[in-house]
Amino acid sequence: MKFILTFLLVYTVLSISYKLYLNFSENSSYYPDYVTNLTARQSQLILESIGYEAQIAPHPNEPSMKLIINSKFVARIIEGCNSISIIILFISFMIAFADKWKSTILYIFAGSTLIYAVNLFRIVFLSVGLYHYPWRREILHTVIFPLIIYGMVFLLWMFWVNRYALKYKKV
């Protein structure tokens, strides 16, 4: 019961804080918000580093960044693509299942960084896939996305739980 209450409390506090950040971001110079803008710019850099001509541009009709590969519009990077919501879910679980605070905080930092990095490569992978195989849009976004990003979070959780659970079995 303590796990569930802690998880829900942390998730609620972080989600509300993130929503406040998004509301505050509406008045910033970064469109649509800083993290989404950064995610788009970093995705562009990765695409360029692997040989694609990539551009990003603010979407004129919605809060997102258009991702263009070789002059072809392939994807929108919206707030949900920046991995923050998934990192909030990850952090909530980690705090609810905390071990020693130092190791928990280090794992949260390392896991969040890994989730963010894998998310960037997920965007690049999906964008290249959409560029070359636009007719596979549905499977790329609805199957590959969850497999990559939620699979990563699940593996991080399982590693932590097994490490944490094994530690207490030995005692």
Written overview of the protein:
The chain is mainly α and 171 residues long. It has one domain. 69% of the residues lie in helices and 11% in strands. The protein has five helices and three strands, in the order ααβββααα. It has helices spanning 2-25, 34-49, 84-96, 101-132, 137-169; strands at residues 54-58, 64-69, 72-78. The chain has a three-stranded antiparallel beta sheet, covered by helices on one side. α2 packs across α4 (101-132) and α4 (101-132) runs antiparallel to α5. The protein is globular. The two termini are 23 Å apart.
Describe the secondary-structure layout.
Blueprint: H1 2-25, H2 34-49, E1 54-58, E2 64-69, E3 72-78, H3 84-96, H4 101-132, H5 137-169
Antiparallel strand pairs: 1-2, 2-3
Key features?
171 residues, mainly alpha, three-stranded antiparallel β-sheet, 5 helices, 3 strands
What's the total number of strands? 3
**Unreliable residue runs:** none
Based on secondary structure, the structural category is: mainly alpha
- Give Rg in angstroms: 18 Å
Q: Termini, distance in Å?
A: 23 Å
Mean pLDDT: 91
| Quaternary assembly | single chain
Overall geometry comes to globular
Largest sheet descriptor: 3 strands, antiparallel
Query: What percent of residues are in strands?
Result: 5-15%
Helix content: 55-70%
In short:
The protein is mostly helical and 171 residues long.
